[in-house]
Amino acid sequence: MTLSALLLGGRGGDLTSFFSLVFLFMFLPAFLIIFSIIPNKGKKYWLLAASYLFFWFVSGTLVAYLFLSTLSMHYFGMWLEKSQTELKEELSGAPRENKKTIKKQYIRYQRWIVFLAVMIHIGMLLILKYSGFFTKNLNSLFSYLDLGIDLAVPEYLMPIGISFFTLQALSYILDVYQGIIKADHNLFRLALFISFFPQIVEGPICRYSQTAEALWEVQPIRARNFYFGLQRILFGMMKKVVIADRLNKLVTEVFLNFTEYEGGIIAIAAVCYTVQLYMDFSGTMDAVMGIADILGIRMPENFARPFFSKTISEFWKRWHITLGTWFKDYVFYPVTMASSMKNLTSSARKRFGSYYGPIPAISIALFCVWACNGLWHGSAWHYVFFGMYHFILILAGKLIYPAVRSFNEKCHIRPEWFGYRLLQMVRTAVLVVIGELFFRADGLLAGFYMFRTMILQFTFTSLDNTLLKKLGMDRFDFLIVGLALILVWIISMVNEKGISVREVIDRQTIVIRWTVWLAMLLFIIVFGAYGLGYIPVDPMYAQF
């Protein structure tokens, strides 16, 4: 019998949801009780042990991948540091005319170290996550060419969160190479940085400089941190259980049987999926941040009210922020700063001016970013299309910006005018929903079929009580979702103005404070989507 079966009755997989009964009433309380009673010097080691225990519960022996990734980042960091130290020593005693040559040799050597580290981490990810996808496409090509070759399609078990902790490990190695941070000689601190259990399932993708020291110097739990942390977990639970999980039946039914539905119903499903994905992912992030708050750890936010965005580019600066900044820092900037791109920009400036001159290099960098972004989410063509869709929208936005600005000036349209900003937000939301339709569709062809039906057959003639029953939602369900969305929208709008709702509530009397949070808890208990007829929904981004 495994430890998972012994301690959790074989339900270790339930831990992937931070709102499951197993996590909320077994794992988290047990972790916090032990954390509170052990001496301060031992808290960091318990945090590390609990993180590995959590990962072992949800991934079993695949925890070996996490351990190997930790060892790799540790020793590659040490290797780079040794090379950097040797470079400084050799430069200090070298003649001035030789320093440039010496530095060039060492930089080339360090780049080979980084290249090897990237190949190991990305190579592991490519083999586990993408080898089946590439093999299937090769077989399709061989069949089309009538070559008579049929390669065996490999299938591998993947540990949960591998896409997240791989990027986190690479960010550490690249930051050491760039001199942003120094290599950490403490293997346990690195292991805790990459395995911290709240973030291992869905992120956020943290940098070493953001959380490593804070995790290692974790302090005893304070009452205010505990109170604020529980508040955020509760808010995330409302998003996930009341909204996202309640919409799941409708979304699953329409996307699974899309040929049976007219365009209006598909449009409703696409909007519902976009809402579901945001509420599921941001709700889980609220739980992650809440657990970190309890421990006094400040983690980078992963969402900043994305549906207030006026452009697609702004949307992706507010959605999955840590993934976007990772691609910006480690893909976009390196591509644009390459010598060939600098030369391209320099020559393009002379022909096209200061605004359009950088566009060719930016286009190439954006293409790389969104190709990687699409594939990062999954090994299928509709994910690739999802990436290219946003690449085209963002690039088009940059290309037409001067014309739009000129048009607004001539027509005396002020960008800060509320009606104009609202129009921009609605337009951006529509474009996002279209992208998410392809993202959720069961393949690229299914996505095109659904999009065509949505455009050419946009009717609601079949929308009645019988259809709603088939979709798993009645008018009462829509009412509950609507009320919850209004609550989220009000809180988001207040936060958008720079006002912390939690701080405002905290300044009220104890009666008002507890009334607010008990009302939230009661709302979740009464209107949450669970019990008979509901299937627990795993965190949606955990699959990526």
In short:
The chain has helices at 3-8, 21-37, 40-59, 63-92, 96-144, 162-178, 187-195, 208-216, 223-256, 263-294, 312-318, 321-336, 339-356, 359-377, 381-410, 418-440, 444-456, 465-471, 475-496, 501-506, 510-527. It has 544 residues and is mainly α.
Report the order of strands and helices. Answer: HHHHHHHHHHHHHHHHHHHHH
C-alpha end-to-end distance: 30 Å
The overall pLDDT, averaged over residues, is 90
Based on CA atoms alone, the radius of gyration comes out at: 25 Å
Shape: globular
Number of separate domains: 3
Helix proportion of residues, in percent? Answer: over 70%
Oligomer: single chain
What structural class do helix, strand and pairing data support? mainly alpha
Largest sheet: none
Low-confidence spans: pLDDT under 50, at least 5 residues? 1-7
Number of helices: 21
Strand content: under 5%
What is the tally of beta strands?
A: 0
